[in-house]
Amino acid sequence: MGQGSITRRYRFCAAHRLHTDYLSIEDNRAVFGKCNNPNGHGHNYVVLVTIGSPGVSQSGRTMDIDALDRIVTERIVTRFDHRDLNQDPEFATRTTTGENLVLLIWDLLVTQVPEGQLKKVAVVETRDNYFEYTGSALVAARS
Ligand SMILES: Nc1nc2c(c(=O)[nH]1)N=C([C@H](O)[C@H](O)COP(=O)(O)OP(=O)(O)OP(=O)(O)O)CN2
Ligand SMILES: [Zn+2]
């Protein structure tokens, strides 16, 4: 019997600007519009982390929530809260889109939780935008 899954919610506030050095100033403006404003803008990001255990466990639960909190706080919240995402070394050559952010958060967490237990990471950027990654297929949605 499987164990089901648990999803835990985390938050951080960060600034960013959609911009790539691979495009000209004019093309950046054309592609990213207001999100390319040189002054940047901010979001109250919400990160949803889903953990699931394969197989049977005597405890009847997945990973301990306190342990997950420690990992996500150290690896994600402390790293990004009240920062400019564009200054993060991982975004030196990648645009700070939600698509790229959710992939980066997955990569930062997948090595920290027991193998096979990270099932999904979702990033809510605005009231209407969220991004999901399950390790194989990226889903960007606008509701
Ligand atoms: N494919 C993507 N498109 C956009 C992304 C992204 O990450 N991937 N990001 C943005 C912006 O960062 C942005 O701040 C969201 O802007 P906007 O479209 O204005 O968002 P909302 O309409 O949902 O929010 P409002 O607060 O109502 O403007 C844009 N596109
Ligand atoms: Zn934005």
The end-to-end span amounts to 34 Å
CATH superfamily: 6-pyruvoyl tetrahydropterin synthase/QueD
State the domain count: 1
User: Which consecutive residue ranges, at least 5 long each, have pLDDT under 50?
Assistant: none
Order of helices and strands: EHEHEHEEE
Portion in helices: 25-40%
CATH architecture: 2-Layer Sandwich
Structure ligands: the ligand Nc1nc2c(c(=O)[nH]1)N=C([C@H](O)[C@H](O)COP(=O)(O)OP(=O)(O)OP(=O)(O)O)CN2, zinc ion
The value of Rg in angstroms is 17 Å
The number of helices is 3
- CATH class, please? Alpha Beta
Multimeric status of the protein? single chain
The computed structural class is alpha+beta
pLDDT average, as an integer? 92
In the sheet with the most strands, the strands line up as: 3-1-2-4-5-6
CATH topology: Tetrahydropterin Synthase, Chain A
Our estimate of the beta-strand percent is: 25-35%
What's a concise summary of this model?
The protein is of the alpha+beta class and 143 residues long.
Topology of helices and strands:
Layout: E1 5-16, H1 25-32, E2 41-52, H2 65-80, E3 83-84, H3 98-110, E4 118-124, E5 129-133, E6 138-142
Parallel strand pairs: 1-3
Antiparallel strand pairs: 1-2, 2-4, 4-5, 5-6
The structure holds the ligand Nc1nc2c(c(=O)[nH]1)N=C([C@H](O)[C@H](O)COP(=O)(O)OP(=O)(O)OP(=O)(O)O)CN2 and zinc ion (ZN).
Q: What key phrases describe this protein's structure?
A:
single chain; 143 residues; alpha+beta; Tetrahydropterin Synthase, Chain A; six-stranded mixed sheet; 3 helices; 30% strand; elongated; binds the ligand Nc1nc2c(c(=O)[nH]1)N=C([C@H](O)[C@H](O)COP(=O)(O)OP(=O)(O)OP(=O)(O)O)CN2; binds zinc ion
